[in-house]
Amino acid sequence: DVQLLESGGGLVQPGGSLRLSCAASGFTFSTYAMNWVRQAPGKGLEWVSIISGSGDTTYYADSVKGRFTISRDNSKNTLYLQMNSLRAEDTAVYYCAKDRIGAAGIGSSLRNWGQGTLVTVSS
Amino acid sequence: DIQMTQSPSSLSASVGDRVTITCRASQSISSYLNWYQQKPGKAPKVLIYAAYTLQSGVPSRFSGSGSGTDFTLTIASLQPEDFATYYCQQSHSTPLTFGGGTKVEIK
Question: Do A113 and B55 touch (CB under 8 A)?
Answer without folding.
Answer: no
